[in-house]
Structures are given as C-alpha cells and as structure tokens.
C-alpha cells in the first residue's frame, strides 16, 4: 500500500502545481458487486526435498463490498483519483477432501482448510470524460492489495501473507443532479501480478532446503466489478 500512496501523493502534488487555478475536488461512496478468478498450483516436497505431488486448480468467487474515493478535477474533463476499500473482500473457505465425503461436508479433525481475505485494496487512477457521449467516462490506473491467508492446517503449519498489484481499466456513465451531486454506474476490470507463499518449513528443516515444504503459487489473477456511486463535487 505504501507504493500506491506514494504514487497518489506525487500525482496530487504535481497536479496542484500545474493546475492550481482550476482544481475541483470530489468525494464519493460506492457499492461494488465483484467477481475474481485465478489459477493455483500447490507443490508438495518430501523430506528429501524432492517434489512429491503437484496439484493445479482454477477457482473463482463473488463478493459485494463498499468503497470510498476522492478525486481532483484538473480540467473539465480530466481528473485523478484514489479509491479505497475499507473492509475485506472474502473468498469462500475450502476444505481438503481428506476424511470428507464432499468438499462441503463438515471437516474431520484431520482436515485442512483455507480462506483468503483481500485487504487494504487501493487504486489510483486517471479519469477522462468523453463529452461526445454525454456523461460517459473512462478510467485507467494501478492498484495494490494485501492477500491475507487464513488457514487451518492439520499439520499445524501456517502460510505467509503476500501482496500483489496490477492494472485497472473502467468505463462508466455519470448523471449530474443539483447541488454538485451525481450518480455513477461503472464496470471495471482488474489484472493482478502472480503471488507465491509457502508453509514456512524450509527455514527449520535440517534435511534439505525444501524438505517437507509446501509451496502455493497463484497466477492468471483477474477480476471485474460493477459499481454504483454517489458523488459530491465542490
């Protein structure tokens, strides 16, 4: 999150210097309905450090969440903004199949489970109005998010949290009302960089560098969200 805040602060101060006579601030609150997907690979090593099993899965989930944003209008048609999700975007909890008749069954004591929260989700972007299409606008920018791994492992091991970043692009429509109020409807696409985490065994294993280690990597991560926002411009 520090990286994206640095970008946002630099952009705002640069814009303030260049457009100090015409800056127009806006604030807004949004409700988002989202879908996220990715492909995961889990690699298990034996005590000798050789690969024992490799499992690949593709997963997707949906969630709804609120977000808030601030924008600074540089001209009548160009703005810079920062969007922040104050809560967690939560994936479903998945259970291992060991000892269970189905994936949805109540877990046995020897089962493992994992659930992921996406927290501190921040995006910085440029918004450009398209005057010939009425209230239509487009956005492009950069986002960061922390990936919090909430696992319950039969082995007692834990997986480390990670963070990822990527690009965002959106198209929307803004309907202006009285007293500086507006309503927006928007669709946004997200792309995220690959992430990797492990169960932390390698550091304490005396047999080999990878003895007993499990490594989980997730790639091809992307998302989409539909948003309804209320905006106040000053």
| Low-pLDDT regions | 99-104
Radius of gyration (CA) equals 22 Å
Q: Categorize the overall geometry.
A: elongated
Count of strand segments: 11
The CATH architecture can be named as Beta Barrel
Q: What is the typical, i.e. mean, pLDDT?
A: 83
Query: How widely separated are the two ends?
Result: 28 Å
Fold and architecture overview:
This protein is mainly beta and 234 residues long. It has one domain: Porin (Beta Barrel). 7% of the residues lie in helices and 60% in strands. An eight-stranded antiparallel β-barrel has the order 1-2-3-6-7-8-9-11. Strand 1 and strand 2 (51-73) form a beta hairpin. The longest helix has 17 residues, at 2-18. It is elongated.
How are the SSEs ordered, and which strands pair?
Blueprint: H1 2-18, E1 24-45, E2 51-73, E3 78-85, E4 89-90, E5 94-95, E6 113-129, E7 136-152, E8 162-176, E9 181-191, E10 195-198, E11 214-233
Antiparallel strand pairs: 1-2, 1-11, 2-3, 3-6, 4-6, 5-6, 6-7, 7-8, 8-9, 9-11, 10-11
Characteristics:
Porin, single chain, 60% strand, mainly beta, 11 strands, 234 residues
Structure summary:
The chain is mainly beta and 234 residues long. The chain has one helix at 2-18, and strands at 24-45, 51-73, 78-85, 89-90, 94-95, 113-129, 136-152, 162-176, 181-191, 195-198, 214-233. The chain has one domain: Porin.
